[in-house]
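Consider this pair:
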Amino acid sequence: MPAAKKSATRRTTTPKPKPEPAKCPDCDGKGETAETVRVGARKGRATDNHQTALCLTCWGTGHAAD
């Protein structure tokens, strides 16, 4: 008579947490930058006003490019 097989128990591993991606150096991880508003056709003088713009380095994600 052959020996009876034992049922194998499946071992599970705990998933390791993914490391946080590095922050974008240009926008400090916010995804937006403040641009100075310029007025005037020829000289383009700067005003005290600012507008938010999408960070061109990370395209608004806030993560540094690889």
Summary: The radius of gyration is 27 Å. The chain has no helices and two strands. The CA atoms of residues 58 and 64 lie 6 Å apart.
